[in-house]
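One-letter codes give the sequence; the fold follows as tokens. Both lines appear below.
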Amino acid sequence: MIVFERADNVKINELNVGSVVDAVLTTEPNWSTFYSGEFVTFRCDMNEGENSDWEYKLNKNNESYLSIKKDKNSMLALNHSGEYQCCGHRRNSAQTKCSNTVTVSVSNKVVVTRRPNRPHVFSGETITLTCEVQGGETTEWKCDWNRDGSLVNRTNSKDWMFNISESSSGNYMCRCRRRDDWFSSTQWSEAFTLSVSDPNKPSLVLQPNWSQIYRGEKVTLRCEIQGGTQWTYEWRTTNRNSPSSSEYRIN
């Protein structure tokens, strides 16, 4: 038995066994999805004689891809999809056997999403960034977070919640690893730009705008803020039932 090892982002879609053959190609670990940095082991078993009786090669898309002598392991990087098959040539003989094929496809898209998802964010607000791994929704992840080329945080989940400050502006990228496998890693996501704005100071408007107001008259106080629409309001008054809207009417 000879072992071919590959590292990178691959997804094992199917194991096709056509006609009954003695040579068998298997993969370890037998996960449904692999990501960049993980190890994939192709095992080629001729099911005949000793390992030393055979010379092995790994074919990709029906073309010779890699030749390996007995008892040699090779760690390589998978970057593209393809159909893999191992073949063995028996020394001092014309006998050649080829295995079933294993179809491997790349699947590792990573994107950054945010909550709340609105165009304006301000200092003092709380935001949650999520590193979404395509095909890995049910996997438990540990993630690295990069801002403007520097590692700024590591989280034990795909979510990162933090309070926004003026220094939070920048281009964010993330990548994740399985919690139970340090060597597993996705590629870095595309950059996500976070722009932090300074909110304008609110202004208080009185309607009607009289210089003197007498007991029993009705007035409306309006709190106006330029920029953004999703505001909540707090009125400081002796009335405990003060509203949470932008207007406050006094009778």
